[in-house]
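Ticket #4471: complex job returned nothing on first submit. Input attached below:
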Amino acid sequence: MSTELPEPASKIELKPGVGGGGEIPQFNITLRVRRYLPETTADAYWEDFELTMYGTDRVLDALHKVKWDHDGSLSFRRSCAHGVCGSDAMRINGRNRLACKTLLKDLDHSKPITVEAIKGLPLEKDLIVDMEPFFQSYREIMPFLINKGHEPSAERYQSAEDHAKFEDTTKCILCAACTSSCPVFWTDGQYFGPAAIVNAHRFIFDSRDDAGDMRLEVLNDKEGVWRCRTTFNCTEACPRGIQVTQAIAEVKQAILARSI
Amino acid sequence: MSADIAAPRSQRLDPKYVRARKSRGSFEMVAWLFMRLSGVALVVLIFGHLFANLMVGDGITAIDFGFVAGKWADPVWMFWDLAMLWLAMLHGTNGVRTIINDYAEKPATRVWLKGILYVATVVIVLLGTMVIFTFDPCIAGNTIAACK
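Support reply: We reran it on our side without changes. The output follows.
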């Protein structure tokens, strides 16, 4: 097996430093994590970690480095680590972001990078909050297809135009970044929150679904869509780029149109 | 110190988040709609008011007791000011009600603040309405033509 293979015809000679072959930049950061250990301390506190990270690393990589090399007691949620499962929403430099989608190179290294749990939900440990109130609101808007007609023998057809009405809100990954960025939700946790309304929108405007009226009735509650103050925090926080505030406005319009 | 941490997926809901009974009717929707409609009406009413008082004729220098008395002798201005009073008071009250709902965390605080707010609104609206309809320009020493 020592036969020399001929060079493939498609081979292109690259200049040095072009095409990703160069060295990955390295930098030092201070990661300031809001710690809360209910077994040992009564209050949450800030803890700094000095780390050397690479230009390709994300905040999640920095948290992994802390947990694996510095302090194994650091607790946070993450599952897929690639922006799809929605487990690692946290407050990074005061803004709700997914740790797995926030590159360290995009953040300011001259100051500590602050990482804390999302706000408005009961804190359980370090960066982990109790998501049950969030999912309770999600359940209440009935996030599943309700169809009263006959079960079709094949798929349920839908035109591209009909699909376009709710395409944006199908992108939700239930990370809670929007709901936990909403100042109305922070007050008393009674508001349904943007995420529940986005997922209601996904079915209310689905031409195959027959229970839009029931969902509009649920959201016409005093803790429903009318508590939205259009501060756009949710739209700004959404890691999937969903136009959350617009979706809420569309649900408001649907409730109005149905009542008048 | 040890903490009591419930098992995951226990579906135990922190009591703070348990939503009160489903509200009946569409009060919040009507309030939301009223804010937008009254806002549009108030833009017209307030700028009309400012224009009539400050720009027309002698402008700001003409405003005195007699000027107001003259305006309220005209049913159009009576209706204009009445509409402005009611809409502005209800619009403002609903706005402050919203702020109380958003910022007051304890139910008792909310009830007290909103109680004070509603009493103040009722007093001001009734007093203002009474003044517009029972206004008598001929108080002692007034020299306008209608009182002679």
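The CA atoms of residues 66 and 131 of chain B lie 15 Å apart. Closing as resolved unless it happens again.
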